[in-house]
Sequence to fold (136 residues):
Amino acid sequence: MKFSEIGDIVDASEFRPARKKKMKATIWRTGRIGFTKEASEQMGFTKGSSLLIIAKTQEDWYVRVVKDDTRGFPLRIGSGYYSFDAKRVLVGKGINYADQEHTYIFDISQHGHDDADGAMIWCFKLRTTVTQRRQK
Fold:
C-alpha cells in the first residue's frame, strides 16, 4: 500500500501561526545603517524618504520617516536595500562603526504616534555582539 492511498495529507503549515519577521537595521563598517526588506516595507520607505533621528542615548534612538525634509538623513537604495550615511551620528554617540570585533544591530519596533500629526515614531534599540574571528 502506498502512503498516499491511506487518506488526505494534513498540511501542518495551515495550523502554524503566521510568523512576523523582526525589523532590524545593521550598522555597516562603512558608517551606513542598512535596513532589512521587512523593516523598509513596514516603515514605509519610498523614493525620496528621509529619517529624522532623535538619539536619546547610545542604545535608544527614536526615528520618524519623512518626505522632502532637509533636516532628515536621506535614504538611498542599492541592490534592493535601503540605507543612509550615519557616520557623524555614530561618532557623536561613541559607536566605533569600523570595529572589526563587534557587530551592531538595531531592533526596530513601533513606539507610538506623533501627537502633532499622527506619524509613526519608531524605536531603535541597539544590540552589540562580539564577532568571533576565524582562525587561519
